[in-house]
Amino acid sequence: MKQYLDLIRRILDEGSDRPDRTGTGTRAVFGHQMRFDLSEGFPLVTTKKLHVRSIFIELLWFLRGDTNVKWLHDHKVSIWDEWADKNGDLGPVYGKQWRDWVTADGRHIDQIADLIATIKRDPNSRRQLVSAWNPGDLPDMKLAPCHCLFQTAVIDGKLHLQLYQRSCDVFLGVPFNIASYALLLMLIAHQCDLEPGSFVWTGGDVHLYSNHLDQARLQLMREPYPLPRLVIKRKPDSIDGYEYEDFELVGYEAHPHIKGAVAI
Ligand SMILES: Nc1nc(=O)c2c([nH]1)NC[C@@H]1CN(c3ccc(C(=O)N[C@@H](CCC(=O)O)C(=O)O)cc3)CN21
Ligand SMILES: O=c1ccn([C@H]2C[C@H](O)[C@@H](COP(=O)(O)O)O2)c(=O)[nH]1
Questions:
Q1: Would you list the DSSP string of 124-142?
Q2: Residue 182: is it exposed, middle or buried by C-beta count within 10 angstroms (0-12/13-18/19+)?
Q3: Fewer CB within 10 Å, N side or C side of the chain?
Q4: In the chain, what percentage of residues exceed pLDDT 90?
Q5: What angle do CA 226, 232, 234 make, to 5 degrees?
Q6: What pTM does this model have?
Q7: Which pLDDT value is given to residue 200?
Q8: How is domain 2-250 classified at the CATH fold level?
C-alpha cells in the first residue's frame, strides 16, 4: 500500500501542527487523494496487521441500518463503544442515513437500495450518490459522519467508487475506511453484475494524532507485502443478504499489529 505510506510521509513532511476537538493535537494536511485499482488486489494496509473482522462486521452493521452497538457486541466488535450512550445508541449515524433518511415531508429514503436500482437502470447516471451528512440530524448524532459522501460510476463494465471523508485519522481510522469502502464497492458491483474498478479516496482534514507519530514512522521503516485478494463466495438476492462468512481473504501477509490510543 504505497499510497498509504506516501500519505503518512506527506503529513510528516508537510503537515501543520493543529489543535483539535479531542484535545490530543494533530499534524495535518488539507486535501489528499489516493486511488486503488481493485484488480491489483484488496487494499489492506500490510505495514501493520489490521483487525479485518472489525472492518467487515462494521460494514455489515451499516448496511443493516443499525445504529446501536449491541449487534457489534454480539459479533465481538467494540470499536464504537466509546461514543455510544448507556443504551448502546449512537443516534442517527451512518446506518440510519444510508437506509432510512427521513425527509422534511415524512418520506423514508433507502439510499443504498436506490443507488443499486439506479446503477442497474441507468448506469450512465451522474447522480449515483449516497450522503450520510444530514445537517438536520447532526445534533442527535454521537459523532458527526467522517466518511460522509460517496459516488459511484459505471465505465466500460466496471464499477468505480469515490469517497469523500471530511476528517481522517490516518493511523487508526483510514486503514479501516479504505478497506470498508473497497468491500462496499465489491458488494455493489457483485449485486449489479459489474467488475470492481477503482476506489478513489478523497480526504478533507487528513491528520495524524500527535500520539500516533511514532507508530506512523515505524510503518515507513517496514517493507509492504503484496496485497491480498478478497473472494465473495456467495451471491445473495440483495445487498441485505451478505454475511461475514461469505468473505474470504486470501493471502493477507502483514507486519505485526501496532497499538495506538483512539482519540475520543
Ligand atoms: N479518533 C477517532 N478515530 C477513528 O478512526 C474513529 C473515531 N475516532 N470515532 C468513530 C470511529 C470508530 N473507528 C475506530 C475506532 C477504534 C479503532 C481501533 O481502536 N482500532 C484498533 C483495533 C481495534 C479492534 O479492531 O478491535 C487498531 O489497532 O486498528 C479503529 C476505528 C473509526 N472512527
Ligand atoms: O470512520 C471514521 C470515523 C472517524 N474518524 C476520525 C476522524 C477524526 O480524527 C475523528 C472525528 O473527529 P471530528 O472532530 O468529528 O472530525 O474520527 C475516521 O478517521 N474515520
A1: T-S--EEE---TTTGGG-S
A2: buried
A3: C
A4: 100
A5: 165
A6: 0.98
A7: 99
A8: Thymidylate Synthase; Chain A (3.30.572)
